[in-house]
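Per reviewer request, we include the raw input and output of the structure prediction for the construct analysed in the revised manuscript.
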Amino acid sequence: MSREDRKDQKKQKDRKAKAGPPQSKELLVPPRGWYGPGGGRVGHLDPPTMWRATTVQACGMWPFAAGSGAPMIGVPLGQHLFTGATVCGDPLSWFTRARYISNPSLFMLGMPGLGKSTLVNRMLIGLAATGVVPLVLGDLKPDYADTVRALGGQVISIGRGRGGINVLDPGAMGQAADRIGGEAGDILRAETHGRVLNMVAALITIVRGRPMDDHEQSVLSAVLHHLRERTAPGRTALLPDLLQVLTEGPDRVRAVTLDRGNDARYRDAVDPLHRSLLGILDGPLGDTFASETSTRIDPNAPAVCIDISGIGEADTQLTAAAMLAAWSDGLGTVAASHALADAQLAPRRWFFTVLDELWRPLRAASGIVDRIDALTRLNRSLGLGDAKITHTLKDAEALGTDADRAKARGFVERAGMVVCAGLPRTEMEDLGRVVGLSQREIELVSSWSSPPGWGVTTEHEEPPGRGRFLIKVGGRPGIPIKVAITQAERELHNTNTRWTPNESADPVTRNLAQQVARAAQEGPLPLDPRLTGETV
């Protein structure tokens, strides 16, 4: 190669080195457009609308399948708070179909106004659609009466001047025993006797403020047996009849008291019981429990609600007694239905009971927790699901004795499902020692108990935790959900009806109030010139 050729080759290499790497012919456009005027720059991309469908409906559009991790068996409750997946569940479906829980019961805790009864109302509606019979045994506000009416069910009012319950009435269980007959009927009558005895003992416990003595229960049982034998067919004994038997002192009752023919010994044995029964009849409970049952539960009703909202808030004894009588009557109806089904005289039906505001009967008297435990412990063998609702675990801690507190905590421990609405952190830590909650779950539920901010100006601003719940089942991780109610549910269930403005008020006054509210948002109102001394 000549000297000139080498110079030309070197110049060519230098030009290539100065030019840099070869440029791509492809024009790369930034994902959000070019910067600068006319570049079409997009600062924010709206998320696409999410639609949910089954694989049968959308198989051609979306041929892929992936599990969402949320349970899909039972009543649709709401969306998973983090994934948006639909969450379904209720105690009966998770016990009978999914086998997630070993006991068809639910225990719900949460601060007032966060939607506990709204969620239970949704379960009532969903279960009623599958043929389950909802039983609201003691509606205090009422939260469920309108829902039961909309389902075509039966609403029974209990209270002074409204209606009463005869606790000696065997009710549906007595009717079922007569219809079944034979040995099975006798067994059901014996069960009826035990339920009536338990209910009368509960009333005496409420009046006394302490449990009955063991020998008094034996006397009471003998009196009830004697009263049933001497009561004419077609007639139901009343509490005054029970007092009459104690006064007469028949041999069957005297034998239990060990009076040995001594009338003074008999009177000493039965007088405390006699005084307590007089206290029921002549005291705050007499008007409600001394006469015939005003309206019996219809065993064929699609839903039943016993409304005790007419009883005053301060009347704790009557409230607790009415709730216990309603539970006893309702659960007796359940037992009668299953006895008829076992005898092939009626179709099999399942029931779902709601025991709301559980703290009120628990605080009525020492030992009342035993009566509630006796009424509700055997729900699994009765074909019965239940939901117990209260505010906090401190409702159980406020009971008088350590034994009562331990039994009340057992309601939570035995529950198949535990549902938490917003609770303070200290409450969640106490619950975590019973249920087993992670630190993240405690922080999440605690954040739902915060009130709205001070700067809220909208009319219907809700607390941040309203409609949010954490569902715990055994040692599984909790399922956080958000419940969005429909318009129909909103119309049926409004626990703040007393705070709704009266639309029939004077329109001039209503218009003036609206003007003042708008002015308060815009700034301080000017003073009236007559108050400042200025010339008008």
